C-alpha cells in the first residue's frame, strides 16, 4: 500500500469530495477514485460512502485517520531531513524582488538573517511581476518579494499593504481635491506603468465603469521615469507608495477615497518541501516586519 493512496484518502475525508481532493493533490477525479478503490481492495473493507450529497468516511476509515495522519507527518519529516542532508554545508538562498523592496525591505531583513547564517551565500535578483513568476516556476529563485498574486503551487506570506496614490504636477486642477475617485482621472492624460509590471493598477483601472475617455499609455515600467514625466507636466499617473523612493518638488500626490492597495509579501514553495534555511528566512522576514513597520 502506497503513501499516495493514504494521502488521497485523507484529502477526500478532509473535503468530503473526490473532485476537490483531486484538485488539491493534482490528480484526475478518476485517478483518485481508482486509488481509493484499490486501497479498499487491499485492506478488505470499504472506506468511503458515496452519495448525491458527497462522500463521507466509514467508521473504519475514521478509526484509521489519526494513524494515517501520523504516517503522512512522518513522511514529511523524512523529506525535510533528506533535504537538509542534501543541502548540508550549502547555505545558499536565491531571492527575487521588486527594485523598491531591494532598496528598502531586503537590507533590513538580511541584516537579521546573517546573524543566524553568517556564511550564507545569498543571490539577489531584481524583477517585475512576470519575471519573478517565471523565475519561481523555473526554480531559478527560492523565494520572491512580490505582490499577492503568485504562481499556482506556491504559497504567499503577506507582509504589508502598499496603497496606491495619484501623482500629478503641483499646479494640476486635481490638487484642489483631498482625495480622488478613479473616474476623476479619465479626463486627463494618464500614463501608467507597463501592464505586466503593475498588474494591480490595471485591475483597478479595468474595474472602473468608464475607461474610454482620456489617454492610457502602458509604455513605461520604471516609476522614476513616470515621476519625471509627471514633473514635466506631461501627464498624471498612479503609483504604489513603495514604488516612489522620492517625490520631485513639483509633483503632488493624492490618495484615493477607496482603499486601493496591493498586498506585498513573499512567494515561496510549499513549506514541506523547502530546506530549513528558507523556512528560517520566512520566519525572520515576518519577525522583522512585525518588529518595525517597514
Lay out the secondary structure.
Blueprint: H1 3-15, H2 18-25, H3 29-43, E1 48-51, E2 54-57, H4 59-86, E3 92-97, H5 99-103, H6 105-116, E4 121-126, H7 129-138, E5 143-147, E6 155-169, E7 189-193, H8 199-207, E8 215-220, H9 223-231, E9 236-240, E10 251-255, E11 261-268, H10 276-291
Parallel strand pairs: 3-4, 3-5, 7-8, 7-9
Antiparallel strand pairs: 1-2, 5-11, 6-9, 6-10, 6-11
Give a quick precis of the structure.
The protein is of the alpha/beta class and 294 residues long.
Characteristic terms for this protein:
D-Maltodextrin-Binding Protein, domain 2, 294 residues, alpha/beta, two-stranded antiparallel ribbon, Arc Repressor Mutant, subunit A, 3 domains, 43% helix, 9-stranded mixed beta sheet, 11 strands
What does this protein structure show overall?
- This protein is α/β, with parallel strands linked by helices.
- The chain has three domains: about 5-85, Arc Repressor Mutant, subunit A (Orthogonal Bundle), CATH 1.10.10.10; about 90-160 and about 265-290, D-Maltodextrin-Binding Protein, domain 2, CATH 3.40.190; about 160-260, Periplasmic binding protein-like II (D-Maltodextrin-Binding Protein, domain 2, 3-Layer(aba) Sandwich), CATH 3.40.190.10.
- Helix content is about 45%, strand content about 25%.
- The strands form two sheets. Strands 3, 4, 5, 6, 7, 8, 9, 10 and 11 form a nine-stranded mixed β-sheet that branches. Strands 1-2 form a two-stranded antiparallel ribbon.
- Strand 1 and strand 2 (about 55) form a beta hairpin.
- Helix 1 crosses helix 3 (about 30-45).
- The chain is elongated.
